[in-house]
Amino acid sequence: AKFNAILFEEAVNKKMKNTSKGYAFVVANKDGIMARCEGGWAQDPADGNLRMTTKIPSCVGSVTKMLSSTALLNLLEAIPGVKLNDPVISKLPKKWQNKYKGTRVEQLTYRQLLQHRSGFRSSGDVANLDSMATLSGSGPFSATRAYNNSNVSLFRYLITSLAYPQDADAIEKKLIRSSLEDYAESVNKMYSLPFERYIIKAILEKGVVPIKASCRPIPELSPVVAKGYDDRNDTKGVFTETIASHEEKGNFCAPQGSWYLSAEMLAQFGRTLLFSNNYLTNTTKSMLFDPANPNDRLGWASEKKHAAFEKETGQSSWPWHDGAQA
Description:
Layout: H1 5-16, E1 22-29, E2 32-43, E3 50-51, E4 58-59, H2 64-78, H3 94-99, H4 110-114, H5 125-133, H6 150-153, H7 155-163, H8 165-174, H9 180-190, H10 192-204, H11 217-221, H12 243-249, E5 260-261, H13 263-275, H14 282-289, E6 302-305, H15 307-313, E7 317-320
């Protein structure tokens, strides 16, 4: 059946009415944005008085991981000497390379991180690497997808080291006398800045429509930006990531979360990924979408299934990522 934008808007509004503070949906294809639907508030009437629209950025949470995964794959395509099955140890911070020498961390590969099949189970990069270092046997590998933030959080180090090796060298020289504890906090901050630069250059600026996303709602997006609310009755919202909270947590622009995009910006990212080669070649894109085994797909957190989708497309499931995954 032909897509009907009016029926889509009516159905979404009916479904979403009185369920959330604000919402925005976009449907897009190769030709552009085909339908928009919006409602509620980006900022409560008592807290900024800003209606939600498809053009207003909000924190997309873990959907950020798809931007970061695409950026890493973009780099792997650009550097012929680095392959998906290569170990990542040489691109981790130098003191970690030494710390984990001779352990299973040396076997961790780009593919395993991109498939969420590293075997990570803990919270925090160092905790996961420390846990992996205690294991014996070969291969930090999980047969099925086991979603974990650190699989993508580590991309700040990989992307910086691959794209800007001179920046990585400069960071290491500054931290050569740091204790391991101080070092972990410092590299988290310092490697995030070149990572951010690459996201802007390779992903945001290369969109079929350039994407003006940010991980600093204040001051870069304020005042036209959505706040976060506990529920639809909450009248005091917060920004998920402010400069102060970035500095406090030391993650600045994190690969695993924290970026702000509007529904239309996300649609343009999706259109660029699917319908152009601005980010990736068709060969690499096929590794995100085509594998019959969902565990082999690169980047995505999980998959979704629905009988109506299968009836219309003949495909039993589709790759999936949402912003609440952690």
